[in-house]
Design brief:
By secondary structure, the protein is of the alpha+beta class. It folds into 2 domains: 116 residues, MutM-like, N-terminal (N-terminal domain of MutM-like DNA repair proteins, Alpha-Beta Barrel), CATH 3.20.190.10; 124 residues, Helicase, Ruva Protein, domain 3, CATH 1.10.8. It has a 4-stranded antiparallel beta sheet with strand order 1-6-7-5, covered by helices on one side. It is elongated and about 55 Å long. 43% of the residues are buried. The model has no long low-confidence stretch (mean pLDDT 97). The chain binds a DNA duplex through helix 5.
DNA sequence: CTCTTAACCTGGACGC
DNA sequence: TGCGTCCAGGTTAAGA
């Protein structure tokens, strides 16, 4: 479910409830999600104060004194802050108990998410090797152009490669490529420097706009306060296969690229 | 290295 | 109503 805008929306929703709060304990209703839940969540985090809630790529970090809880929402994960004692439902796998008499609740039906631990001063292996943040200045068209030389994979697959640039998933890759006028199936190494400049600008603009709308809710994404994201109203191509292009009226086409559904306008994108 | 494919897991939508 | 099939916002591991 969540790409960068949804994770950032989650981060912004959580921070006011978590920063400065002391963790009283943790309730684990199952031992693993994608991987075993780190033992430090129950054994080391309680008693510590959450100093900040940060984001790297699609990961969230709850930073405490001896380390940070490292979370990924996978395809179906969500986090909410609820009054202590709120009955838990199916797939509510973890509660982190706070000294505010609230709980941070991690729900993830498909369990593709994870809850790990990064020791203070260390970099978790999952965070090593990630590409730049798309909203940082270090990310631009030249970065994409240089990284793509000689690459034969589809440009959409390339754009979703987290070692190239982080945070872009299936929705925003499709939308950015439409905005830049690039066909998603084109080989990454056969896109010009000029067109990569347009693509990088499109990525930045679309992600920023999506964050401003609270992300995209297709079925089950919710912010920590329970609110959906409204960027779904601005989607140009994602989920619109067969429908008319909003720019030219041509029927949007769809095909699988890298095992992900990909939609584009055959007239606007080349 | 790069690229492709299978796998992880549940639930909703759809066809019969 | 029930059952089988396919698909879904992500990522890793294994193989070519």
């Amino acid at each position: 479910m969540p790409e960068l805008p949804e994770v950032e929306t989650t981060r912004r929703g959580l921070a006011p409830h978590l920063v400065g709060r002391c963790v009283r304990g943790a309730t684990l209703r199952r031992a693993d999600l994608r991987w075993p839940i780190a033992p430090q969540i129950a054994a080391e985090l309680p008693g510590q104060t959450i100093e900040s809630v940060s984001r790297r790529a699609k990961y969230l970090l709850l930073e405490a004194q001896t380390g940070a809880a490292l979370l990924h929402l996978g395809m179906s994960g969500s986090l909410r802050v609820l009054p202590e004692g709120t009955p838990h439902g199916k797939h509510d796998h973890v509660d982190v108990l706070l000294d505010s008499d609230h709980v941070l609740r991690f729900n993830d039906p498909r369990r593709f998410g994870c809850l790990l631990w990064q020791a203070h001063g260390a970099v978790h292996p999952l965070l090593a090797g990630l590409g730049p943040e798309p909203l940082d200045e270090a990310f631009d068209g030249d970065h994409l152009w240089r990284a793509s030389r000689g690459r034969t994979a589809p440009v959409k697959t390339f754009l979703m490669d987290q070692s190239v640039v982080v945070g872009v998933g299936n929705i925003y890759a499709a939308e950015a490529l439409f905005r830049a006028g690039i066909a998603p199936g084109r080989a990454a190494g056969r896109v010009s420097r000029e067109r990569y400049a347009a693509l990088a600008a499109a990525v930045k603009d679309i992600l920023a706009r999506a964050i401003a709308r609270g992300g995209t809710t297709l079925r089950d994404f919710i912010a920590p306060d329970g609110a959906p994201g409204y960027f779904v109203q601005e989607l140009s191509v994602y989920g619109r296969a067969g429908q008319a292009c909003k720019a030219c009226g041509t029927a949007l086409r769809a095909r699988m690229l890298g095992q992900r559904a990909s939609v584009w306008c055959p007239r606007c994108q080349h």
